[in-house]
Amino acid sequence: MSDQLVIDTLDFVCNRGSLQGNIPLVGLERLRSYLADTAGELTYLISGQLDRHSRPMLKISVNGNVNLSCQRCLKKMEYGLDLETELLLARNEDELSRYDEDIFVDAIYASSELSIQLLIEDEVILGLPISPRHQNVQCHVSTKAEIHTTATKEHPFTVLASLKRTH
Ligand SMILES: [Zn+2]
């Protein structure tokens, strides 16, 4: 990806900038390790705004379907991403540590060269469920049931074998 989109974050806020676009999942290398496959793409919208205390921030929304691996049956599981985030832009270390202490806000360093793609990728990784699982009815736990039936089928023979051995 040579045509990476980069913004100057504080300029972006001053100009009330707004950007939207699509990112194919296949281009997001760090995110890939969290996914079952890289089919599809994400749609994003980023706008530069001031929060109610007049602090510069980026408002980010990301939508799209990704395929995760269910942690119960390990099969593919479609997950609909619908993220809305507000990131305050810290202009120095003091501001960043102050924002970090506030559990109600998220913050990043204001940057003159922020990659939109890396930003979106970070947000998506943070927004993924830690332990994704199918809803019970959709889960392929039948593999477990199959193991059970073969076990019961074998059972009479095992009993027979142990009987023979004792006689
Ligand atoms: Zn499952």
Q: Overview of this structure, please?
A:
This protein has 167 residues and is α+β, with helices and mostly antiparallel strands. The protein has one domain (6-134). It has helices at 9-14, 29-32, 93-101, 116-127, 142-166; strands at 6-7, 18-24, 41-50, 56-69, 76-90, 106-109, 114-115. α3 links the parallel β5 and β6 (106-109). Mean pLDDT is 87; it is low at 146-154.
Précis, in short:
It contains five helices and seven strands. By secondary structure, the protein is α+β, with helices and mostly antiparallel strands. The chain has one domain (6-134).
Helix content: 25-40%
Record field, number of beta strands? 7
Q: Given the structure, what is the number of helices?
A: 5
Model regions low in confidence, pLDDT < 50 over at least 5 residues: 146-154
Q: What order do the helices and strands follow?
A: EHEHEEEHEEHH
Distance between the termini: 74 Å
Query: How many distinct domains?
Result: 1
Chain-averaged pLDDT: 87
Q: What summary fits the major beta sheet?
A: 5 strands, mixed
